[in-house]
Amino acid sequence: MGAMNARHDIQHIAPASLASPLVLRCGATARNRFLKAPMNEALAGPEARPTAEHVTLYRRWADSGCGILVTGNVMVDRNQLGEPGNVAVEDERDLPTLRAWAKAGAANGAQLWMQINHPGKQSPATINPHPVAPSATGTSGEYSRFFASPRELSVDEIHAIVRRFATTAAIARKAGFTGVEIHAAHGYLINQFLSPLDNRRADEYGGSLDNRMRFLTEVVEAAREAVGEDFPVAVKINSSDGIDGGFSEEESLKVIARLDAMGVDLIDISGGTMAGKPVIQTNGGAAEDQTRGVYFAGFATKLRALFDDGKEHMAVALTGGFRSAPDMRRALESGMADVVGLGRPLVVAPNFPKQVMAGGFERPLRLPRVSTGVRALDRAFNGVLVISWYESQMHRLAVGKAPKTDGRHLGIMALAFALRKHGPGALAPRRRKGHR
Description:
The protein is of the alpha/beta class. The protein is 36% helix and 12% strand. It is built from 15 helices and 13 strands. The chain has helices at 52-62, 95-105, 155-175, 189-194, 209-212, 214-227, 249-262, 285-292, 297-307, 325-333, 344-348, 352-357, 375-380, 382-398, 410-422, and strands at residues 22-23, 29-30, 34-36, 68-75, 87-88, 111-117, 132-133, 151-152, 179-184, 233-238, 266-270, 315-319, 339-342. The strands form 3 sheets. Strands 3-4-6-9-10-11-12-13 form an 8-stranded parallel beta barrel, surrounded by 6 helices. Strands 1-2 form a two-stranded antiparallel sheet. A two-stranded parallel ribbon has the order 7-8. Helix 1 (52-62) links the parallel strand 3 and strand 4 (68-75). Helix 1 (52-62) runs parallel beside helix 2 (95-105), helix 1 packs across helix 14 (382-398) and helix 14 (382-398) crosses helix 15 (410-422). It is globular. GO terms for molecular function: FMN binding; oxidoreductase activity. Residues 28-357 form the NADH:flavin oxidoreductase/NADH oxidase N-terminal domain. This is NADH oxidase.
């Protein structure tokens, strides 16, 4: 597939305001510069099917003021799930519910993009005892005991998974979603192909960076062919895996340049894997935010320098640590990003973008500290506590309730929710990135 830069004149507004529309390469327009980042809603019904709760939740977020809403993981294979409660879309059996979801999430002029993914070996053994991967290399690090050893994919199986991504993308468009985001980050299958630690293949899908990115570029090409040139195709990618010998910043910049040349509409910068260490879920709340600041700003600056050549390029979304209007304005005005991504703030304060555009949050939104009150439990289930607590609040939003952010021991609430909703398997780690 050749470059698609000529499909539409991109309107990068520099310096952009948070309320400025953004016209993407494909011609679609985001009404402003806020993006709701993907978070696992954990709302799927039996057989990984979408539910009425997805409809209610995304109707709520469509009223938040966000220009773009990106769903949590939608897996391309219902037998290969990354987290408890994932939706899977591999055929049209759930088209009526998907249409209702899409209509609700695209209300009020919002864009609703389906994030499509395959977990590879990063699929907890409690829900998938037979994972697949680029190579038969197990998950490393302290969480390795939660994952079964993967089987190496054959070339024919790789091609079949590429077709699955295309099928899911096509169904997303048919259902009324207004874009797709291909998940190539956080240690899932595409990221595993990119990583020289996970990908030990000696064929056309392994070895050199060109070979290791082949699976990703084939998925992008297949998705584009499935949805057409007038439909947004975005990619979420790691700035790095955060581990020695893994996918590096230098390699990430090269892959992004390739994706840009292919005509991808938006790149969503992220980072970290189950084995990587610098980007993790912690329970520090507002104190953590104050210490950490905005994630991936340094990498975004490098990417902007790469794109500073007078030519038109894909839009850049930066997610993680945005809690105040001044930080978001600086990200846009500096040219570091075209779009600011929000995760946790949209759970705690579902109207956050509207409030920011109305002049609010000149001081940072304070997120709650999620703690059981027992230090040993906090250490043992740190990331699980945070993920489960935010999932529990999304469940409240999904039935029309307000988030419940007060209380001394929110971590106990989170553990109880996880065990009640998913059983003991919920205590296995699901992500290790914590950058919302």
